[in-house]
Design a protein that fits this description.
There is one protein chain. The protein has one helix and seven strands; from the N terminus they run E-E-E-E-H-E-E-E. It is mainly beta and 78 residues long. It has one domain. The model has no long low-confidence stretch (mean pLDDT 91).
Length: 78
């Protein structure tokens, strides 16, 4: 599994919505972005799952981005 640091969702990246690890969401922060590989195999379309870490509630699924044009930026550690 490759770690995704950021995704940009939309037809035109300049006007699109971006989600990135560490982004503030209410009282929490985006903790993980993953490509749902099971969904890809089963339905042959990409779905990204965005999880947040909330101080009171813990880790939870916040959003799914289904079958949308996306640019994924991976977490490359050199």
């Amino acid at each position: 599994m490759q770690l995704i640091r950021k995704i940009i969702v939309g037809q035109n990246p300049k006007d699109a919505m971006a989600y990135f690890v560490g982004m503030n969401v209410g009282n929490g922060k985006v903790s993980t972005i993953v490509l749902d590989e099971e969904h890809l195999v089963r339905y042959n379309n990409k779905r990204y799952l965005i999880y947040i870490e909330d101080p009171k509630e813990g880790t939870m699924l916040w959003k799914s981005v289904d079958n949308m044009p996306c640019v994924a930026e991976f977490d490359c550690r050199f």
